[in-house]
Design brief:
210 residues, alpha+beta, Multidrug efflux transporter AcrB TolC docking domain, DN and DC subdomains, Helicase, Ruva Protein, domain 3, two-stranded antiparallel ribbon, 50% helix, disordered N terminus
């Protein structure tokens, strides 16, 4: 993988820099820029436009690329940035992603785990059932889509842990990420300095798995 030093990245992100547009275009030409989509049946893939491989994989070619300064002068990129070859993580193929998704979907979710997922979402919608401060803190609970998100995320978490079934620990681990943004806090919760994650943690303590 070709690596460009951070100076060029700074130029690309500083809109007040006269080199901003040129640096950004250069970064996009090396890394690629999504220009649309390619549709194959039900699948959609990003259409990425970038320089040919020989300009992106050969350090000498990258260094020799001419870029324009604010004065209109053309100079080699190597005068502005340090170019080097670094090891990159192996690419994840589409086939590997589809295989992983199939394995995740095959993770077993027992009836007790399904009930726990449903109870947690209902707990955000009917917090009075669990007493404590939940009823004061939650103004609007998660929609039924929250159960789908929690189920999918719990399966993925179990798969990453090397399990073939979903446990309550998997559900609790992903609950904040799946539910926190789906609830609306009351004025009482905000006045008490409670965050959405705080409320979900209180919910996890209140709702007991079977």
């Amino acid at each position: 993988m070709i690596a460009v030093d951070t100076n060029l990245l700074v130029y690309a992100h500083r809109t007040d820099s006269p080199f901003h547009e040129r640096a950004r275009s250069l970064i996009e030409s090396l890394a690629g820029k999504t220009q649309g989509q390619v549709v194959e049946g039900d699948l959609r893939f990003p259409l990425v436009v970038r320089l040919p491989d020989r300009y992106r994989t050969d350090p000498a070619s990258v260094e020799a690329m001419l870029v324009q300064t604010s004065q209109g002068e053309l100079i080699p990129l190597g005068h502005l940035a340090r170019i080097q070859v670094t090891e990159a993580p192996p690419k994840i193929t589409q086939e590997l992603i589809f295989a992983a998704r199939k394995e995740v979907n095959a993770i077993h979710v027992a009836e007790a785990a399904e009930k726990y997922i449903v109870d947690l979402v209902i707990g955000t919608r009917e917090p009075k059932c669990y007493g404590g401060d939940l009823a004061k803190w939650i103004n609007l609970g998660a929609s039924p889509r929250g159960t789908l998100a929690l189920d999918a995320a719990a399966r993925a978490h179990a798969w990453l842990q090397g399990q073939d079934f979903v446990s309550p620990d998997n559900i609790r681990a992903v609950a904040p990420a799946c539910l926190a943004h789906r609830i609306h806090l009351s004025y009482e919760a905000e006045a008490a300095g409670k965050t959405r994650n705080d409320v979900i943690e209180a919910l996890l303590k209140a709702v007991v798995s079977v």
